[in-house]
Fold:
Amino acid sequence: MDIRFEDAEVRFAGRTVLLPVRLDLTERRIGIIGLNGSGKTTFARLINGLVRPSKGRILVDGLDVTAEPDAVRRQVGYIFQNPQNQIILPIVRDDIALGLKNSRLPKGEIEFRVQAMLERLSIGELGGRRAHELSGGELQLAALAAILVTEPRLLILDEPTNQLDLRNRNRVLQTITSLPQQLIVITHDLGLLDGFDRVLLFDQGRLVGDGVPADVIAQYEALAA
Amino acid sequence: MATKDIVLAALFAAIIILLGIVPAISLGFIPVPVTAQSLGVMLAGAVLGAKRGVMATLLVMLIAAIGMPILAGGRGGIGVFMAPTTGYLIGWAFAAAVTGYLAERLITPEQTGLTQIVYFFIASVIGGIVVLYALGITWVAFFTGIGLSKAFLGSLIFIPGDILKAGIAALAGRAVMVGYPLLPQRA
Amino acid sequence: MKTLYAEGDSILHRASARSKLVGLLLAGILTFLVTSIPLLIGLLVASALLLLSTRLGLKDLLRRLVPLAVTISILCGLTMLLQTVETGIISLLRLTLLLLVSTAVTATTAISDVMDEITAAATPLERLGLLRAADIGLAIGLVIRFVPEVAERYEVLRDAHTARGIRPKTLSLLVPLIILTLRDADEIAAAIDARGVRR
Ligand SMILES: Nc1ncnc2c1ncn2[C@@H]1O[C@H](COP(=O)(O)OP(=O)(O)OP(=O)(O)O)[C@@H](O)[C@H]1O
Ligand SMILES: [Mg+2]
Structure:
């Protein structure tokens, strides 16, 4: 998809948290890095209209996100920084099915797709579990399943490996690497960005770096030093 | 209806349900269960305002109606709407509405802390005691044939406990407003 | 969370949720039209048989009936003392009858079936533009999800009090509990919107 920022700027309560950005994102694998509070989440949330620009606009495949958030959200999946907040229904399987509720698919087909999705992420055994009992890694995968089942064309992941042990981190890494979708990944885990097409670096609400992973990561390391 | 209003009402309904599980404030011996749950109802109005407060109490009633034992003492099921004490349950929605409405009207951010606490107390007493009892007593009187005046006298035993709850609701309502203001302002 | 539905295959289990709920409502209205004590006793026996037909165990039955039965007995006892004995007996019969029938309906009707009936009943309100029927199911799902989380948070707050040597009191627990709980509302609402659940 083609994500175009036209001088989008964000202010919260009079404080500018994102300075005007103008850029075009079309690559298949895009990373976003930067220090805590630098504006990464705010930037990413502009793409599906969870944050509205105070100035400027964002176009996703030509659709203005502020004007048509629903149309954009049907194509853009977003996994929250804290997936706990994203689980809506108590049982994992029901929560995943929720995303298909508006699809008018027959009940049996919904059940089939939910099960297939659980198995694709090798979490078939989690279907009947209560979401609030899951560990951080299981929760991350359950949240991913709930979004992937709606087949978005673009997937935004906000720190997907944060809180995960090494095994689960690698499991999530492997899963997202194999996804056919276009991806935008916010992360402090720089190893995730291997093979990415483009990385953006934010600092104090300003886009300060934009290029191939090696260059931008070097810039980030210099900035953090 | 904004999604956030639904979420706030659902979160508060969960708090009211939890208050039915934690140890009850026990006072008197008349068999209307006295728990912190009606404290939760006053707070729903005081913290969320009338509309969302009513939604929270309606959600608790619906969840009881579909057959979950979430009311104080583990009661639940459709039968709680056909019992002599049903007036006190249905009355929750009216209690939250009146408490919330009064809180929205009376309280502004500029007032001193003490003024706010007093107003929250007045709102909780009128909504959570006067209105709730009016409905509850009428229902008991009708369902048992005991007569209004006698049902009224019998329920006086609960008033001290409920005044205490209104006091707690006032202090908590004001403290929550300082930490996380949600009460819609009415001019 | 626990439910009061008890699985089984009795006649009542197989009856539709709508017929049971409408039947219960009619029973409620009819009971209050009947004033003859012998007739009420007959109806009471019939409703006891109805409840027994659900094949609930004795212990389970007692657990379901005792709390409200106590309330009913005391209130009707008072009515007998303060009004006439006849008024008290009639109330006792009526209220016990309703307790038995509603307990039978609750025990034999699955939660999802009652939910469907509530959603159906809300559809006229939806046409009036008062609410969206689908939101009811969403909201109830949210509450059921939140209860264990709020309970956990309550435990954590109590432990935090104890760890810092403060005796946990209703007020000092309630305030942080409410703030911490409601603070999540923005994120959860954002997630619901992002996932396009309400369209
Ligand atoms: N709803 C809000 N209201 C006010 N300020 C906000 C809000 N959301 C974010 N901010 C502020 O905007 C700035 C950028 O926040 P953002 O969440 O985008 O940072 P981030 O780069 O994702 O940080 P982290 O790595 O810690 O997740 C921060 O200073 C934050 O406090
Ligand atoms: Mg962030």
Notes: The helical segments of chain A are 40-47, 69-73, 92-98, 107-120, 136-148, 166-177, 213-224.
